[in-house]
TrEMBL record:
Keywords: Signal. The keyword Signal applies. The keyword Signal applies. This is Peptidase inhibitor family I36 protein. Residues 1-27 form the signal peptide. It comes from Streptomyces actinomycinicus.
Amino acid sequence: MRKTIRGAAAFATAAAAVMAMTGAAHAKPAADPWAGCPDGAVCVYPQNQNPAQSPSLVFYSYGPHNLSNQFGRHWVLNNQYGGATASLCTGYNGAGCGAPIAEGTGVYADLTPINSITLNRP
C-alpha cells in the first residue's frame, strides 16, 4: 500500500513539474488589453472619445492600413509588443509617415489629414 501511495505521489509531483515547465515555455507576451485594445493590436477610437474606451478600428497585421471617413481628434493606441511601432501617414498605403508611436503608448491626434496607419516590425 505504501508503495502505491509513494508511486502516486511521485507521479503527481512529476506531472506538476511538467505542467509548470509547459506553462513557462508558452508564456503570453507582456502586453495586456488596454482600453479595449487587444494584445498585439493598434486601435483607433471614435472621434472625440476621451478617454479611450472601445475601439472602432483594430489592426493586427504589419504594413499599411488605409483609413476612410476618419475626421477630427481620435485616440490611436499601440498595444503591440516586442518593440513594434505604428505610424500615422498622410498618404495612402503608408506614404508620408510621421514619427513612430512606441509600443504601449498612444496619441490623441487629428486624423483629418491622415490617410493610413502603418504597423511596423521591430
